[in-house]
Specification:
Chain A is of the alpha/beta class and 231 residues long. Chain A is 39% helix and 17% strand. The C terminus of chain A is likely disordered.
Chain lengths: 231, 231, 231, 231, 231, 231, 231, 231
């Protein structure tokens, strides 16, 4: 593929508050390398997602050297991280099996300078583990919840806190839960009002939603005085 | 249809611990009447399920007079109820919308002489309502749980008590939860070990399962001395 | 049904920032009336959703008189509306057919004192209609988008603004789009990062999510000084 | 992953009658090892499920040595088995292909001290094989049935015995039966009242349900005198 | 619609052994009447299926008078029945609810001069009812089996007789069995070799398949001598 | 697994006209070997299906030597073939990709002494190929048709011949046709009356159905004189 | 709803070659009336689709008088038809039940001044009906084919002509064909290269596609000379 | 397989305007080689699709030498390309991940002598990339659009140009978009009138549809004078 076929959307962050990122899974090695070289040329920071540990070693050595790669989340970052703010986002996972997806969200937040804190192994089959963390969770600005299987965590959590809950169904599960559809349906059908959902295993997308919320929050704080009177 | 086409399974209770019952929804009025007359002829008690309030008035007056009909559960009983035992079964519903299905279970239990107690409006969006009843629920021999929408109740409940939980997904729900499939998937995909499920809205089937469990319990209590030593 | 079977979650708003509401569709007339009388007794404001125009006239006259009923959104409000804030939420619908769902969101926001502004008939088949409103939409704190059929609106919109976009797939559509599943899949599978989705036709749920976001925003603005230093 | 991320639910058995167990399939080797070391530290017995024969050799030698591993059921046990009671549970499989799932149930029962007996190759295509074992099956306290393909075994069996039947649909099957969904639907849609179902291939879950039933049975036998009069 | 738009396939029976028939459900009254008049004009016998009892009275009186109408099977016959042969086909239904579909098959067979015998209420939940008829069923040339819900009848029956079994899944069923899909999957996924299936509720199609089998049988008997030597 | 767990149904052919066969895919090597040794012991002929070319070499050498193995159809036969009758069955495939399934049917027929003839590459996209063979196909007693993708062959064929058509949908296809579901739906939804279907890729099942039809045909020819008068 | 909420896309035809049309099914009477009055005001011709015969009489008398309404196709036209060109499009339906969808296409073509010719009752179960019209069909510029059930017509037709075939699956069908999904899958999975599909029952959409093809054809014919040399 | 089993449809192009092509995925190496040799024998040009890069090296060296193979599109051509016309078809892809499918279309067009131009990376998340190419796209005779994920490109594009748009959903996507079904549903459910769709990843089919459109266009231009008067 010729390099010039690629047209990166470098102004995405300015326009939408979240930066252009590269979903590597469906791309060829050559396509990923061409994108990386283009990013280097225009000196743009870049986030790569779904870059499997089998894929990373196949990239050119000089490109690999320029990447901050994390095999658990399958993400890579070019150009380093910005200064990290305080942890405004809580990442809450039902089990340790949900960690790869949780880490994809954590890395996406970090890439945008947003701090996060992770809370793992609080599945509702042992409810006490979640209940004793509720007070702490109420202190965050956004909570992203990760759960596979039946996804009951989303409902229980959202019924206990006054913070927005973004549900990320994960593909952890057997039989009818295979592929994450049961957890997704639970997120959408929840009886706890106000839960919003992203696609299965989409830690990146959930983080982007949180970033947009925090972005508006920032803007709000700055503009607050004038705007309140303007209306 | 000629009466003689019907062949009731009058020995079902002896064989399987649960009595023959008639699912009325897919049958014609004439078929239901023929079955009722046959039951009267052989002087057999009989449970009818899914006999809608629009259907009941269409039956012959003498048959209607012989029926103990309950419009909420859409059940009718011929031949009266046996002596009722103590309440060994708890019927726990997430919301008042699940009541018709819960009542079908209650009536089926009553038809077999099994008492039950109902606990309603304990959906997990307001978790405190369930938590304060947990101790009481641990005293029953079987718990049947009814929930539509995302069905998180099944998991939360089963993670808190040492009693068998039979999950009855109900068709209460909108969008992806329409028809009860989301709740059913939650019951099957649950991360709380030991939940068993029946078909959507199948209060009758859940009650039958409970009856079989209690039947084995009764048998066990009687045979306990000799059997323990026999092995 | 006995009135005492109902257990309203009157502290939900305090706990979760969104108030208890009643989904009327799966409830009987008697259940709804019992809930309304309970609300009157404890002098609590209450929102009812999915109360169809065929259903409303069947309620007792004194209850009807106490309700602020809107047939388009199929919502009713007991106890009046609080003071309305400035319009922080934009409600953007692809077509006029999405209006009932949009209005359910508008009424839910109003019930919580949150103002909103509606933008209708901006389906992407005639893209110019949306493009000329983008600048205005960037000024809101949250955008809720409503679309049935193929739901392309969600992606186009989210690619153009830096505000959180909550996608509400509607059941407007024929053939494979029947029931809103195609639009829901588009919301989840979107290539525009940061879109979050709620269940099909769930205007109420989308509004609740927006309310939680605005609630955290309010909190943030108040606590900003101290918290910034605390970390 | 840091060891301290893991929070085992060591009191689960006390609370729910079934012990905490580890579903290995979605976990990393490092996570499983960390869990095993934690179990050793707190001297707790532990059951591991879905630990494939390709996975087991990758664990640290000292941990492997401490495990009682069974490749057919893909289960491992740390800390040995308790004294085994008499066989109260019958495990009935339609074909030899269902054995891995049956064995997972047998091992789960054994881990909890519950004896079981297996009956294999009684698919209903050759009905005589099942019919001649019916009398023997009526002597058990619970029957767990395993079948893939069309799952007719569940219905036939439940129509012939007065013992609770837990249906475990297995993923044995071709074409429309692929993945076990046809067998699952048969278990749920059965015309034999009282069948309950667990997720596809969930031998562990079915055993847990049986354990809860037997647990209540035990409790019942002990408490019988006082409780009967108490009501 | 102009009459001349209709082009009946009057030579279908000669070509395929089964006669042209009219599926009335998706047609307008005018279309059905035009077809009937055309049949009268060319003096051709004709079978109409899915002609609901609400539809029949709407036809022109002279056409109604010419029809042999059966409301249970929703079939009508123009031009009378041919001489009926001996009963070569057994029609076996799990329950009385399957009768409308069974009768559609019986009428289709009769229209083609093929006799049949019906056996009803032999669902496998009470297996003895079927077992005592097995010997008699082995004497027929084809068996058509009708079952909804989980459709276990197909497998049990086919495992006991040496006669072709055509499975007709019926839309009798609740929850996951709604619409007949569970029974259809059982027919296709059966572990009893040699079961063939038709579409849900398709009594007409099953009868046509039986007619083709009997047609080849007739041909075989006639041509047997010469053909045997010809090969 | 102990050998004695296996219970072969050696009387199946006597009872149902089709012999016991072994579906190898879900079985372990040890299970297959145990079955083969049992067959040798009781000197019974046996058909094995779905024995992949990767699997066959793993069997014990002496067992391999005793098997007539065909890698295309993935079938193996123990004990040789009986005398083959004339070709009463036509096997008609839309494309060469359907050959493995067609050959499974051919081998199953041969195992039961039934001859067959194959007609390949007659997909309806080039209709002339099928049309010029119609006359020949009308001479057979049964036609088994194999098609993947959209499965139009079933309808076209059945509309042109007076012989029973058994449709075997194959898993040949891309996109929505993946796995054979589109072809299966075409077989069931066909507008050509009298088509019957078996499961996807089930060449074995289709052959068994044909064998049952021919078996009744044989019986008919023998008993014809007496039976005709008996009625 | 206020009239000014509606924003018609009056320049759609100029931009896309097909005119703005109104899908009436999901709209309220008031919305339709407001749209009609707006069209009258700006003196714009307008096509309305899915305006059911139960709906039409509810419109205001003066608006009804201004509409050219056709109950079969459920379409209405404001402002009359343009001059009709020669019949460049053939509309080919498998059965008379497909007529409402075919007519929707015919009316949409007529609204754009495109002539069409209809060919009905050429289902492939009686193949001769289609074959004798093939020569004539080859003379058109576009063929739109309408079929429900298994949709084999699409493949057969496309394999015989060199003209583009647009497949319109219709919701005519029973059991697995209910709602038109089987026919849709056949259209997409076809083995005849070059078939394109639109949504189920979407006669309007198919006509629009044809209009775009003819529009490019017209443009081509006009610009042919200059363009050929320009490249 | 014997060579003579293969019956190529060499007259397909004459009959349908698109040439016979070979779908290699479901065929064996031997089958592909036999087809290639037959093509060489009759000196016919031939297009092979879905010939994976792992498959190509396994073919006989002399056949490989005769093939023009392209690994990206997985296509091979025997007999060279005809003279290429001007680029009448635009191939528009949402992302670089869609390139393999786009290239399959490009190669199919080239095989038929039709030129094309590709436009890549114009996904609607960055709408400006598409908008600035709209004018150029309006100059083509057909546009084929390729998109996975939510497939919003199809609607946006079709709402902006007056050229036929053929939508090719691709299997690029995660979670609910896996396998391309979400994009397919968007193509079918689009609110932009006139979009037509082919099967998922079916670049070949889309190109064939375009070829038929261009073929009629050519024919039209030639016959225009006489035909216009003939009508």
């Amino acid at each position: 593929m010729a390099d010039d076929d690629i047209e990166m959307d470098w102004l995405r962050e300015e326009r939408t508050a979240v930066a252009e990122a590269v979903l590597c899974a469906p791309k060829t090695d050559a396509q990923i390398e061409a994108i990386l070289r283009q990013a280097q040329q225009v000196r743009h920071r870049l986030l790569l997602t779904r870059l499997g540990p089998d894929r990373f070693p196949r990239l050119a050595p000089d490109l690999r050297a320029a990447l901050d790669y994390d095999p658990v989340s399958r993400t890579a970052i070019v150009g380093g991280l910005p200064e990290q703010g305080r942890a405004q986002v809580a990442l809450v996972a039902a089990g340790t099996s949900d960690l790869p997806v949780l880490r994809e969200a954590a890395r996406t937040l970090a890439f945008h300078g947003r701090g996060s804190e992770q809370v793992v192994d609080v599945g509702v089959a042992g409810l006490h583990r979640l209940l004793r963390r509720i007070e702490r969770l109420r202190g965050f600005d956004v909570v992203i919840a990760f759960a596979g299987m039946e996804g009951a965590l989303f409902t229980v959590l959202a019924g206990l806190i006054d913070v927005p809950v973004i549900a990320v169904p994960t593909s952890v599960g057997l039989g009818v839960a295979q592929g994450g559809r049961a957890a997704l349906q639970s997120a959408l059908a929840t009886c706890a009002p106000g839960v919003v959902a992203v696609n299965i295993d989409n830690g990146f997308g959930a983080a982007c939603a949180a970033i947009k919320m925090l972005h508006v929050g920032d803007r709000g704080r700055i503009a607050q005085g004038s705007r309140g009177t303007a209306h």
